[in-house]
Amino acid sequence: MADTNQQSPPPQPGPMQFLMSNKLETAMWLSRLFTVYCSVMFILPILGPYAAANFYQRALLANALTSALRLHQRLPRFQLSRAFLAQALQEDSCHYLLYSLILFCCQLLTFYHLSLQSVGPSSLMFIRNLLDKLTSNQQNILKFIACNEIFLMPATVFMLFSGQGSLLLPFIYYRFLTLRYTSRRNPYCRTLFTELRILLEHFIMKPACPAFFRRMCLSSIAFISRLAPTGV
């Protein structure tokens, strides 16, 4: 006779119980998925240009929500103090939150950036498999994102002169870029700035480079170097 006192295995929690027990992770997963969906609907304007513009705004808001939830995970309990604000500004999630809020009212095509940063390793299975295949190119992908962040700075200036941006946008985005430059978790912005400077200096030092173009590039390098944060 079987032992009637043998304990039965504990019941496995259902999908809804698992989601409810991990509310924060579930909310971030859904917001990331919604960001990717809105980005695709903007890139492929199946419903027309007006709907695509709405999907643009929704993608930025969804990305801001994801970043805010991630920032809530990393930071301790909220305190109205300068130390808490300084700690928040050092987190990449805070940078992405500011990124989304800055570009919320601006028509910049930044969805490839939003899609790359919104897809996390805990997303759908096929996304995880794709990320596993791209592990060998992870450094190049992060440099590509940093390149996007850098070249959006002159884009904000061009938008200002073309009448598509506000006067404060270049200054606000410059502050965002300095935060990315001083990031503790992501050094690729600093690395790419250095690589771009070395590449440009190597190009302008060739004998075939015109003298006026060389002087202009050296002046630009010196100006950008003065704008770089110190003590990094």
UniProtKB/TrEMBL annotation:
<feature type="transmembrane region" description="Helical">
    <location>
        <begin position="150"/>
        <end position="174"/>
    </location>
</feature>
<dbReference type="GO" id="GO:0005783">
    <property type="term" value="C:endoplasmic reticulum"/>
</dbReference>
<dbReference type="InterPro" id="IPR005344">
    <property type="entry name" value="TMEM33/Pom33"/>
</dbReference>
<keyword id="KW-0812">Transmembrane</keyword>
<dbReference type="InterPro" id="IPR051645">
    <property type="entry name" value="PER33/POM33_regulator"/>
</dbReference>
<protein>
    <submittedName>
        <fullName>Transmembrane protein 33</fullName>
    </submittedName>
</protein>
<dbReference type="GO" id="GO:0071786">
    <property type="term" value="P:endoplasmic reticulum tubular network organization"/>
</dbReference>
<feature type="transmembrane region" description="Helical">
    <location>
        <begin position="29"/>
        <end position="52"/>
    </location>
</feature>
<dbReference type="GO" id="GO:0016020">
    <property type="term" value="C:membrane"/>
</dbReference>
<dbReference type="Pfam" id="PF03661">
    <property type="entry name" value="TMEM33_Pom33"/>
</dbReference>
<feature type="transmembrane region" description="Helical">
    <location>
        <begin position="96"/>
        <end position="115"/>
    </location>
</feature>
<keyword id="KW-0472">Membrane</keyword>
<dbReference type="GO" id="GO:0061024">
    <property type="term" value="P:membrane organization"/>
</dbReference>
<keyword id="KW-1133">Transmembrane helix</keyword>
<comment type="similarity">
    <text>Belongs to the PER33/POM33 family.</text>
</comment>
